[in-house]
Design a protein that fits this description.
It is globular and about 90 Å long. It is about 65% helix and about 0% strand. It has 16 helices and two strands. The protein is an all-alpha fold. The relative contact order is 0.09. Strand 1 and strand 2 form a beta hairpin. Strands 1-2 form a two-stranded antiparallel sheet.
């Protein structure tokens, strides 16, 4: 499987970092060579993210089928029961294979994160011991590397959430285990590992946090840099008109908080971490995109950060933090007047630009200048930006509606329409 090959082909840091008896030396770097190395790490993270997205889509498409499979009855003859068990294992084998790939990807991806964060952290602090990395411009994590890390952390949050949503996988696996005829020690051990994986809360973020604390000293500084850059991007909102980009940073920030925060780390008291700023940032957008038909509450992510969660409770909530306030914020009808005004202004500019370009093209004595081309490019970008903001408003409105569904039996909604097992 692809995930298993990733485990086998990880860098030499895999063996050196994960062996607690081996001393991990920093990557010997000049400024130029360290930037080149960061480019390699960025490429690896983006490839890992792409692999994870493909697996995530397969997990999203999974639908539990154990209820549709006939069960062995006491009236069945031994031959009929054996044949039914055999057919059941054949039907459920692809599901079990996907679950094992899911578990293997968890191990491979968290190990790769260690492979990257360990040399990066140790290199920076070997050069500047005892000082935060961003205080010195010589050796630091480039923004492109931090963004790639954010995309992988966003993937980890989604993987943890999809495992909880797809509860039918546990039922399918239990039925497969009951019907299998293989009781060898290796098979039983594999079954035990799968049961532990399916029963574990936050297997991706949880395992990454454990590995970071065991093998990567002072990793917090890189994640604090990620939180700072992500917060700036979300507040500025430049280039984040597409909902997925903004929500990606919000989930990455929440995951970074979980990784850094524990009962022994005074995270909320660090000067490099503005607790009130981050709390207000996450509370301003409590819902983020998770699935096409489902949203994710950020509070369910950072609740696993004990100190930050306690600090978030102490921060006074503004009107936008209340349910009614969020309903008004995500209500698309409140934005229609503003969107319509922007659209009318854009339409006028578009008509003027098109008329000017058509006049130049039809006139034999006039030439199409660079300034005219810049006008066309500006109009195209303006139209795409307007369309993206409208799309974002629709997405946030839909997320609010999915997070606040109608109650059972209200408005003529039958109960069977709400009873659906993923």
């Amino acid at each position: 499987m692809h995930a298993h090959s990733r485990v086998a082909t990880t860098t030499v840091w895999h063996e050196r970092v994960l062996n607690p008896g081996v001393h991990v030396a920093p990557y010997t770097a000049t400024v130029a060579s360290f930037l080149v190395k960061q480019g390699e790490w960025t490429s690896q993270l983006l490839e890992l993210n792409q692999m994870g997205r493909e697996l995530f889509e397969r997990l999203y498409a999974h639908r539990s089928c154990h209820r549709a499979i006939p069960q062995v009855q006491t009236s069945h003859t031994p031959e009929q029961a054996a044949e039914l068990r055999h057919l059941t294992t054949q039907v459920l084998q692809p599901v079990v294979t996907t679950i094992k790939e899911f578990m293997a990807f968890r191990d491979a991806s968290t190990h790769m994160m260690i492979d990257i964060l360990a040399p990066a952290t140790l290199t920076i602090h070997a050069k500047f011991p005892g000082i935060h990395a961003t205080d010195h411009p010589d050796l630091f994590c480039h923004e492109s590397l931090l963004e790639a890390l954010a995309r992988v952390l966003d993937l980890f949050v989604m993987m943890d959430a999809i495992k909880d949503v797809k509860g039918g996988m546990r039922n399918d696996f239990s039925l497969f285990k009951r019907c299998t005829q293989d009781d060898s020690p290796e098979t039983l051990r594999d079954f035990q590992l799968v049961y532990l994986f399916l029963g574990q809360l936050d297997p991706f973020c949880g395992q990454l946090k454990r590995l970071l604390r065991e093998h990567v000293p002072r990793f917090e500084n890189i994640l604090l840099d990620l939180i700072e850059i992500g917060s700036s991007k979300v507040v500025d909102s430049t280039g984040l008109d597409i909902p997925g980009e903004k929500h990606m940073w919000l989930k990455a920030i929440a995951a970074s908080i979980v990784l850094v925060d524990d009962n022994h780390n005074e995270m909320t008291k660090r000067k490099a971490f503005n607790t009130n700023k981050v709390v207000k940032l996450l509370k301003a957008d409590p819902l983020v995109q998770f699935l096409p038909d489902m949203s994710l509450q950020l509070a369910n992510v950072y609740k696993n950060a004990p100190q930050f969660a306690a600090a978030a409770e102490r921060v006074q909530s503004g009107p936008s933090d209340r349910a009614s306030g969020h309903k008004d914020t995500h209500c698309i009808t409140r934005l229609m007047e503003f969107i319509h005004s922007e659209y009318s202004y854009f339409s006028i500019q578009y008509d003027v630009a098109v008329a000017e370009v058509e006049f130049i093209l039809k006139s034999p004595n006039l030439r199409f200048k660079q300034s005219h081309g810049e006008t066309v490019v500006t109009m195209v970008l303006g139209g795409l930006s307007l369309m993206a903001r409208c799309n974002k408003a629709v997405h946030e409105h839909i997320m609010w509606k999915h997070a606040n569904p109608v109650k059972s039996g209200s408005n003529g909604v039958p109960q069977e329409a709400l009873d659906y097992e993923l």
